[in-house]
Amino acid sequence: MSGSCVRQLLLISSSKVHGYQYLEFVANDINVLLRKNNVSTILFIPYALKDYDSYLNTVQEPFAKIGYKVEGIHQSRDPINAVQKAEAIFIGGGNTFRLLKTLYDNELIDVIRKRVLNDGVPYLGSSAGTNVATRSIHTTNDMPITYPPTFDALKLVPFNINPHYVDPDPTSVHKGETRQERILQYLEMPHAGPVLGIREGSWLEIKGCKAMLRGVHMARLFVPGEEPKEYESGSDLSFLLDDKVCNCKNKNN
């Protein structure tokens, strides 16, 4: 891709947060993004769960409250054409392995990538939908219940995200591996790159080459060879977008 980047993403840690209805905590930012792009209908991709119709019903209600119609990609005889005509795309949570495999099975990886990176179609991702927006699904929390042809994902951003990031509980007697330990093990691999651990109630807003952390919690950044670092909500994380996909380059990094 050449020229300026037109991607518009909201990469959300979770659609469900204690004390809020489904996506309620991020509804204002969603509304701003969709209104700016004159969106009236959102294409929902429910592949992370088995029951597509039930999942679609869950999603339609909160979007209807803020004035948007939601259509399920499974309702179309031609999923590729549905993406090509989409005004906005939302991929929700569930099992990341199931989701990615189904995206590959339906030959949707390249067409979604083109619509978002070339055409500027707004992309909303939550949990598994956030995982597949990144370089790969290596840092998902999900069990590998099925096997996609590759762990490579949509690559809308050049780094990985760990949604639902949780901190170790110093009062717990559980001696299993912490989320941080698992991410550090990933960083030992030669193919590893940065991983942003996003806690529930927070999200990453990406506009072109600009990335801002939003929400109520800090995020923890893991970079190979470096100590993990915390970033407050409102932090500029645009340096994570240094890549050739959208000709983004942070001269200070």
Bulk shape: globular
Mean pLDDT: 94
Distance between the termini: 22 Å
Secondary-structure arrangement, i.e. CATH architecture: 3-Layer(aba) Sandwich
CATH class: Alpha Beta
Q: What is the CATH superfamily classification?
A: Class I glutamine amidotransferase (GATase) domain
**Structure class:** alpha/beta
CATH topology: Rossmann fold
Low-confidence parts? none
Tally the structural domains.
1
Sheet with the most strands?
Answer: 7 strands, mixed
Secondary-structure blueprint of this entry?
Elements: E1 8-12, H1 27-36, E2 41-45, H2 52-65, E3 69-72, H3 79-85, E4 89-91, H4 96-105, H5 109-117, E5 123-126, H6 128-131, E6 160-162, H7 179-187, E7 195-198, E8 202-207, E9 210-215, E10 219-222, E11 229-231
Parallel strand pairs: 1-5, 2-3, 2-4, 4-5, 6-7
Antiparallel strand pairs: 1-8, 7-10, 8-9, 10-11
